[in-house]
Design brief:
Order of helices and strands: EHHEEEHEEHEEHHEHHEHHEEHHEHEEH
Largest sheet: 8 strands, mixed
Low-confidence stretches: none
Strand order of the largest sheet: 6-14-8-13-12-11-10-9
Helix content: 40-55%
Structural class: alpha+beta
Strand content: 15-25%
Shape: elongated
Number of strands: 15
Length: about 425
């Protein structure tokens, strides 16, 4: 076996494209985007067998530290068959050597491997499937587990909702698996003549995403990050942006026409006694909508919701979403998720992952409990991953690193004032 410190671009991409369990955050464009917009150096390592065949690989995001030290993050890595204990052992031994010769303090990994089957409340299903063997093997090889966290304490969420398409024979079956209230809002959205674009860009994304960041209380990435990610993701076919738009002029005019028609029917006594209550409710709703839509009545097509999806082979992850207040009112968020579910089914994806939820379904922290309840409506299988692990290359520096980072950040903050 031979460890390669820096794989050729073509060699890495070929392995990634043919590996069954690749992940978008291990893709070549993800590395390029992190390097250009987030200040991390992208390194692509691999392991070759005696026939010079690549059998394992990983994108490592390198963070450089003072005095030549550094640490690495293999986001959702490695690209390796974790069931092959011998291969994992060999790769780990080579990673330890790599850390030593590059002054690497540690490498962090968090592969998307199910820890155990869980039910709707996050508790273990007795006699369900599990990957305890993989977990224990990593511990025995010296990896330090970062805890069975329930919220978003680590770099990536330890829980998710994922829809596996192999168990569905039709869209009708899929529709029936989604909550009725969610599907009702999807059907309601059809009344507003929303347009779905399955090949969009991120020109409007940052502005749309601002409202989500404020509502759900998370730190928003820069506009440059999204644009850089889009540039490389599209170039290497690892990203799709879907959006929902509406014509403001038509939206207002159609609503006004409907309002005037009902008013006219009332004036001419064309509404039966039986339908008067329903017609009055509709009239009240249309009056409210006219007030909401009037600020858009002079605008043409407007993007009101946008979704960035990461792709690896036949797998998709809904990574980032943004919408404005009009998109929220018109149920554009529910519509775009539904259209994404449908798109993946029609294009024969293996699964669609909603990228993250919590393990404590009753949490009151921020809006995480609400987000979980929302994703549960259409997310399908609830999954618990094995979590985050650190492979340490320098025990002393690993121990003092948190303190050094604290001092470093304090000094930077003082200097910036």
């Amino acid at each position: 076996m031979k460890f390669i410190d820096n794989l050729d671009k073509e060699e890495y991409i070929e392995f990634f494209n043919n590996f069954k369990y690749s992940h978008f955050m291990q893709s070549y464009p993800w590395g390029l985007a992190m390097e250009e917009s987030r200040g991390k150096k992208a390194i692509y390592v691999g392991l070759k067998d005696n026939k010079n065949k690549l059998v394992a690989a990983s994108l490592l995001l390198k963070k450089e530290m003072p005095f030549g030290y550094c640490y690495y993050y293999a986001s959702r890595g490695y690209l390796i068959d974790f069931n092959d204990t011998k291969l994992v052992k060999t790769f780990t031994e080579e990673m330890k050597k790599f850390l030593k010769r590059t002054k690497g303090i540690y490498v962090k990994i968090n592969p998307e491997i199910m820890y155990q089957e869980i039910n709707d409340d996050g508790s273990r299903i007795e006699n369900g499937k599990n990957n305890f063997k993989i977990f224990n093997n990593l511990i025995n090889l010296g990896y330090i587990h970062q805890g069975f966290v329930k919220l978003y304490e680590n770099n990536e969420p330890r829980y998710t909702f994922r829809r596996y398409y192999e168990k569905y024979k039709s869209m009708e079956e899929i529709d029936n698996s989604i909550s009725k209230t969610f599907m009702q809002t999807v059907r309601r959205s059809y009344a507003y003549n929303l347009k779905i674009n399955f090949d969009s860009n991120v020109d409007n994304f940052w502005e749309l995403n601002k409202s989500n960041a404020k509502k759900d209380d998370f730190i928003q990435y820069s506009d440059n990050f999204y644009k850089t990610l889009y540039k490389y993701g599209k170039e290497y076919n690892n990203l799709l942006v879907f959006d929902v738009s509406v014509n403001g002029k038509k939206l207002y005019q159609d609503t006004l026409d409907s309002y005037n028609k009902i008013k006219e029917d009332f004036a001419n006594n064309l509404i039966s006694k039986k339908n008067k209550a329903d017609s009055q409710d509709k009239l009240t709703r249309l009056e409210k909508e006219l007030d909401i839509f009037k600020e858009y009545k002079d605008q043409d097509d407007m993007v009101i919701c946008s979704l960035i999806n990461g792709i690896a082979n036949d797998m998709m992850w809904t990574m980032y979403i943004g919408n404005n207040k009009l998109g929220e009112y018109l149920f554009a968020v529910n519509r775009i998720y539904y259209e994404t579910i449908k798109y993946c089914y029609e294009h024969k994806y293996r699964f669609l992952d909603l990228y993250g939820t919590v393990g404590d379904v009753n949490t009151k922290y921020k809006n995480l409990g609400g987000l979980h309840a929302y994703k549960k409506k259409y997310g399908d299988t609830y999954i618990e991953f094995i979590g985050e692990f650190d492979l340490v290359g320098n025990k002393f520096m690993y121990k003092v690193l948190p303190k050094l980072l604290g001092v470093y950040r304090y000094i930077r903050k003082k200097i910036s004032k």
